[in-house]
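Subject: Sanity check before I submit

Could someone independently write out the structure tokens for this chain? I want to compare against mine line by line before I put it in a report. The sequence has 493 residues.
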Amino acid sequence: MSLLPRSTAEFQRKEYWEKFFSKRSVPFEWYGEYTDLCHVLHKYIKRSSKVLMAGCGNSRLSEDLYDAGFNSIDNVDISATVIRQMTDRNKLKRSNLQFLQMDLLKMSFADNTFDCVVDKGTLDAIMTDNAAVTVQKVTTMISEIRRVLRNNGRYICVSLAQGHIVDFIVGQFASGWLVRLHQVKLDDSGKEMTGGIGKALPVFVFIMTKVTPIEGRPILKLYEVVQDESGKCIRLDSIDQIRGHVEDAQQAALVEWHLRSVHPGESTQIDLWTTDSKEPKYTLTVVDQLKGKAKNGQFAIFIVPHGREIDWLFSSDNGRQQLAESAGYERLVVVTLHRWHQYMSLDAVKDEVSAKAVEFLQVSARNTKKQWPILSLGDGLGDRDILFEGRSDCTGPFVVEEVIDEDGNLLRRLVFLNTPHMAQSEARMLRAKKKKKKKMEVDHSNLAFSFHSAMLTGFLFAQDLILEYGIQYCCTITVLNIRYRYCFWLYLM
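---
Independent answer below. Compare away.
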């Protein structure tokens, strides 16, 4: 039995909803359960508030709110069938819960009736496209919602936030309203609504607060995004920024959905940002391999020490695949640190990263309640000391930094930040002899990269040609000489 329309335009038709609810009388939660949404709803609705549930359908949302102490709720829907079902379902246990058949485009309520209007998927159902006739319908609906809301009242819209929806709804409430956006993390433990695309796409809650204008003051225009469950708000300047935030969240959710299954030989990278940073704090690379090669388990996290992120083993796809095979896990999340952030300790990084990394568990491992292993090299985070940073007209920004390699050697590197996981030049540093104890000098006997050996070999084979053209056999090339006397030398002997 099909319950979905052949065309999304059918969502706008009363006849479709009559047929839908006559076939399905059990609750259908389009955009999550009450438990998914209550932490947001309770923040903006008072128990004494008079609430309108716009397009209630047969959702349990108003029943759950009523049971939580929100006892003044009017529910409206265009379908007489669902209004009859909901009235019968609640007449004994929730006799004060009102259900009315009504068209949201022409409501019979008086002006300034409600403190809050809750819309769970109704706008999405009506605004299936941005055709002129559709825009006219939803504009009329929003005008009616504005009319029945009291000053300082709220329109709470639960939506998948498609691009045309974001542009429309934020545009409608751009002036004289406080617009705030929450992203809701749905429980994905097997509810019917979360199958397929319902699981892949995140749900958003738009909170539009009607602000009483103050004479002589400019009309309010304020956009905010709530970044996390702590409730911290980030102020945005435009609809474009809101749309960008939504698109980033949607893309991240699609990646997370993709990673629910294992893809051997594939690597997926995710950057993790703090709310106030200009570059990621961590980069997570998810590496999968065949189950037969996973001798140690299903899932593990590997933290790359500071300064080691440019090593072939950690910076290349082939290297990370080799690392995963050596570790022996079906999925290995390789975590790299970024040079402009401060990290307190390895334990602090483990705590911060593990909570996010386990969001990328494959489905087969999600029902296992266990502490997943966190691997690293040694007991510390490694050392990185940035000696100099600058900018070149040719290569852009660069840094000179010192790190410790796996053998405990001090290495000085030149890194172009356009390719931050590749050292352009590297020299091993030694304590200078017969000089001040803290003075370090370049170890000229060390070739940093394997291709330097190949270049050297080429010079050896080309000895006769070099002499023929008068080029001196022993040749020293100065690669970089920056102020503060940080010098990099490549010796071809």
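---
OP: Matches mine. For the report I'm noting this point. Residues 44 and 375 are 43 Å apart (CA to CA).
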